[in-house]
Design a protein that fits this description.
The complex is a heterodimer of chains A (about 650) and B (about 220).
Chain A (H helix, E strand, L loop, with lengths): L1 H30 L10 H10 L1 E5 L4 E3 L8 E7 L2 E5 L10 E4 L4 E2 L1 H6 L5 E5 L3 E7 H10 L1 H33 L16 E2 L5 H11 L3 E5 L5 E6 H9 L14 E2 L3 E3 L4 H11 L3 E5 L5 E6 H5 L6 H9 L4 H20 L4 H24 L9 E5 L1 H4 L11 E5 L7 H21 L17 E3 H13 L3 H10 L3 E5 L1 H16 L2 H11 L24 E2 L1 H19 L6 H11 L4 H25 L9 E2 L6 H24 L4
Chain B lengths: L1 H8 L9 H12 L14 E8 L9 E10 L3 E11 L8 H14 L4 E3 L2 H16 L7 E3 H8 L10 H7 L11 H21 L5 H17 L1
Parallel strand pairs in B: 1-4, 4-5
Antiparallel strand pairs in B: 1-2, 2-3
The chains are: A alpha+beta (about 650), B alpha/beta (about 220).
């Protein structure tokens, strides 16, 4: 009796099973003609076909949109045309309207994230769509690598688009407001007053006076600039130097003027002025012919805090108190630039350039009380300062390398340097560069060494890559000369590169170490936010973000003999030597740049003036676009880690 | 009227039916009929087509039944489809009865949608009469008659299915279609038709069934 009843139950089950199989057969026939389904294994494909529902959407009807709530289906167009229209005021992709046809799917990003779609999808004509429930979609993402790849690549390309779009919007705004991103072609004087090099001094001055200008460009017959002459030169080089008025202007001008091409940005000019303490930058076309002059005054118009003012006050400071004010100005200026949307790479370099000037001045002030004449020595910057990647809150990492002249007592000399360094360290601390918690400072006897001692130290770390040695390598191998005999640093660098290139085991150990930390990408959620003890919901952007890039950059730089310490430069140069494709490395650099920018913004927006900002951000507080770009940036981190893993056979 | 039906068919159950099948048929007979006055969104339509050895229901053999449901005013769910293949079964195989019953259980008295009821319905009616002793009179929606009435701008008169498939751009896979292929095509046409019907105020299953009946009656007699 039971068997009969069972058989009757079984009959309906098998009727349904057969029905499902045959309906799925129709769907499979369609899927086989479209990527990525044509590459998928038959099992996940069968699941798709058995779960996907076919729905009709008449022409003009909305299929899914921002108001439909969290997206519950993955849609695949079976027939007809669907229009995707961006909702809201800010366009995040290149298109505002996009037409999709049979075999195309949407909204991949939204269904992956389980959030509402940002686009409105409307049936242009009569449309049949397969709709796969979100939970089946997620299951398919796990079970089919091909499908997963397809979706992640799609999202990545969307992010690439949105990133470019974002930059475009920034650039547009920058153009409107003439910010530091503006090309020099649109700034300053377009028709600078010029004279030939052989023009007599008097005639040149008359030209200046007649034109009512404070500066003069000296250019040859091909309009190639050879020098500049300014009012301040008049005092020093003409009046005080007793120069006769009939000599050619070329004898009074500043030769080898600083030049930039028209495409360079106002920021570039600003950096040049800050680095070299100059007031004018000549603008040339691609052939080097003069097309304009940008003065500090022109740039000043773009900036609230004057660059040269800061630079001047740094260079002219006679005590630490003045420098403290300058340090505050540096931060203010950097904040302004950040607010104007200057990129992270430029911004960190800029901060570094001014901080370098500040540090040099502190050293100079301290040197007034110490005499190291006749001794070769050099102040070294380590860590982020060494890499030109300083953010607003970077503590000191520095050291001293010195040579011992014959007949001098090394220990005694070292003592003198230590006393000097202690003063510098303390003054820097007062200027807002906190003392290093790990005591990596020149006043620590461990890091105030002779050239031979440094070389020996480096060699030891490379020979025996113990955990501590590897940690030190990540700080000290990024050294950069800041004051004194740069040749000492260069000798040390050559020694370092020679050692690392002949010790593949060391690089492998470094690679192993660098792969210890992975980008905080979640398997289901976007991010892992539980990695920081005591900081639930937050991500350490330094530890799990920029440091990953920095570590990989260091290894590749050491492996390919790149002398630079800056991570962006390291990755660019190393990738050339390793024949990594440009677009690939650019994507990586953009990832790094974005994370750095977030760090800076976080420190700027949330850090109280004078306090140490942290690197902990809560991704939920980011806007949608930033969150997506951050995710893509972490993916780029994972990408270069994967490459490192392969290159160094770390498993 | 139901009393009369009971009188005519109660004793009419074929002698070969086992007790269990008899009971199961009875259970189905007594099962509730879904509400037809509901909006399309709440109605489960079962689109059905068959394959047969010829065109004459009274003498040719029923070979396959293929069905798929359309729910929520236009969603075709693969999980709610059914298919029967009788070709391997001998005429007296009790499995055949069980399969026919399974289709009834699957359809659950939902409105049946097909193209040309006299053909599809004819074969089903004979099979259910002979095998299970059931006078199979479901609520039919006949696309053959309903389409000219819903899409009058496309055609006023009765047409072949291929004609409509071409018109809706569904005729690409021309060639031999099996019963399920046909059912899926009918389902699509029905999905489109539902939208059209709604637009015309035919917004419940009852109205759609009535419209189908009326159109076939009107067009047949005028």
């Amino acid at each position: 009796m039971n068997t009969q009843a069972e058989e009757m139950g079984t009959a309906e089950l098998s009727l349904r099973r057969e029905g499902r199989r045959r309906v799925a057969g129709g769907t499979l026939a369609f899927l086989k003609n479209h990527a990525p389904f044509n590459k998928m294994a038959s099992e996940p494909l069968q699941i798709f076909a058995e779960r996907a529902q076919l729905v009709f959407h008449p022409a003009g009807s909305e299929i899914v949109g921002p108001n439909s709530g969290n997206v519950r289906f993955f849609y695949l167009i079976e027939s007809g045309k669907v229009q995707a229209r961006q909702a809201g005021e800010v366009t995040v992709t290149e298109y505002s309207i996009l037409s999709l046809g049979a075999g195309e799917s949407f909204p991949i990003g939204a269904v992956t994230a389980g959030r509402p779609s940002t686009n409105t999808y409307t049936a242009v004509d009569d449309v049949f769509c397969y709709q796969l429930p979100a939970e089946d979609f997620m299951a398919l993402m796990t079970s089919s690598p091909e499908f997963n790849l397809f979706c992640t690549q799609y999202i990545a390309s969307l992010l690439d688009q949105s990133r470019r779009q974002l930059q475009l919007q920034f650039a547009q705004r920058a153009n409107e407001q003439q910010t530091l991103n503006s090309p020099l072609a649109g700034i300053g004087s377009r028709s600078p007053v010029t004279v030939a090099p052989h023009t007599p001094l008097r005639a040149a001055l008359e030209t200046m006076s007649a034109a009512g200008v404070g500066s003069l460009v000296i250019a040859d017959e091909d309009r190639l600039p050879v020098g500049v002459f300014t009012r301040s030169d008049l005092l020093d080089r003409v009046v005080l130097a007793d120069l006769p008025h009939d000599v050619p202007i070329s004898r009074a001008m500043s030769a080898a003027p600083f030049k930039l091409e028209e495409h360079a940005s106002a920021y570039d000019a600003m950096l040049l002025m800050a680095t070299h303490g100059i007031r004018h930058v000549l603008v040339t076309d691609a052939e080097g012919k003069l097309t304009g002059v940008v003065s500090e005054r022109d740039l000043f118009a773009l900036q609230r805090v004057g660059l040269r003012q800061i630079r001047q006050s740094i260079d002219g400071a006679h005590n630490v108190e003045t420098l403290q004010q300058s340090a505050a100005d540096v931060r203010q200026l950097a904040f302004n630039m950040l607010a104007q949307g200057v990129g992270a790479e430029q911004l960190t370099q800029f901060i570094s350039a001014l901080n370098d000037a500040l540090t040099r001045r502190v050293i100079q002030l301290n040197l007034e009380r110490h005499n190291f004449d006749g001794i070769d020595w050099c102040w070294l910057a380590f860590g982020s300062e060494g890499r030109d990647e300083q953010t607003f809150s970077t503590d000191q990492d520095n050291g001293i390398v010195f040579g011992v002249p014959e007949g001098q007592d090394a220990a005694l000399l070292k003592q003198r340097f230590l006393t000097f360094a202690l003063g510098v360290n303390q003054d820097l601390d007062r200027c807002g560069f906190p003392l290093c918690k790990g005591n990596i400072m020149a006043s620590n006897p461990q890091w105030c060494l002779t050239l031979d001692e440094w070389m020996e130290q480096f060699s030891n770390w490379i020979r025996v890559p113990q955990p501590e040695a590897l940690l030190n390598a990540t700080i000290f191998f990024d050294f950069r000369p800041l004051f004194g005999q740069a040749e000492l640093a260069e000798t040390l660098r050559r020694h370092l590169l020679a050692q690392t290139s002949s010790n593949p085991m060391f690089l492998r150990a470094m690679a192993h170490n660098a792969l210890d930390v992975e980008p905080p990408l979640g398997k289901i959620r976007d991010f892992q936010t539980d990695l920081e003890p005591g900081q639930p919901g937050k991500i350490d952007l330094k530890k799990y973000g920029s440091r990953i890039f920095v570590d990989v950059a260091r290894i590749y730089a050491l492996a390919t003999g790149v002398h630079n310490t800056n991570s962006v430069q390291r990755l660019r140069l190393a990738s050339k030597r390793l024949s990594i494709r440009d677009d690939e490395i650019n994507a990586v650099l953009e990832g790094l740049s974005f994370i750095q920018l977030l760090r800076l913004q976080h420190q700027y927006l949330e850090g109280e003036p004078g306090t140490q900002g942290d690197n902990l951000i809560n991704p939920d507080t980011l806007n949608e676009l930033d969150r997506r770009i951050l995710k893509e940036s972490f993916r780029q981190a994972r990408k270069i880690q994967t490459r490192l893993k392969l290159d160094y056979q770390v498993h | 009227m139901f009393g009369l039906k009971d009188f005519l068919f109660k004793g009419g159950a074929p002698a070969h039916l086992s007790e269990e099948l008899r009971a199961a048929v009875e259970t189905w007979r007594k099962s509730a009929v879904p509400a037809f006055d509901e909006a399309h969104f709440h109605v489960r339509y079962v689109v059905v087509d068959i394959a047969s050895s010829g065109l004459k229901p009274e003498s040719d053999e029923l070979l396959e039944i293929a069905a798929a449901s359309v729910q929520q005013a236009g969603i075709l769910v693969p999980d709610d489809a059914g298919y029967l293949d009788f070709s391997g079964l001998r005429g007296d195989d009790p499995a055949l009865d069980r399969q026919l019953l399974a289709f009834l259980q699957y359809a659950a008295k939902a409105p049946l949608v097909t193209y040309h009821v006299p053909y599809v319905g004819g074969f089903l009616q004979r099979a259910y009469k002979e095998r299970l002793g059931i006078n199979f009179q479901p609520q039919w929606v006949d696309l053959a008659w309903l389409l000219p009435s819903m899409f009058e701008e496309k055609s006023h008169s009765l047409q072949t299915l291929d004609y409509w498939l071409d018109l809706f751009g569904l005729g690409e896979g021309a060639g031999r279609r099996d019963a399920m292929d046909n059912t899926l095509l009918l389902a699509r046409i029905f999905q489109m038709l539902l939208v059209r019907a709604n637009g015309k105020g035919i917004d419940t299953a009852r109205k759609l069934i009535d419209e189908s009946r009326a159109s076939s009656f009107l067009r047949r007699t005028h």
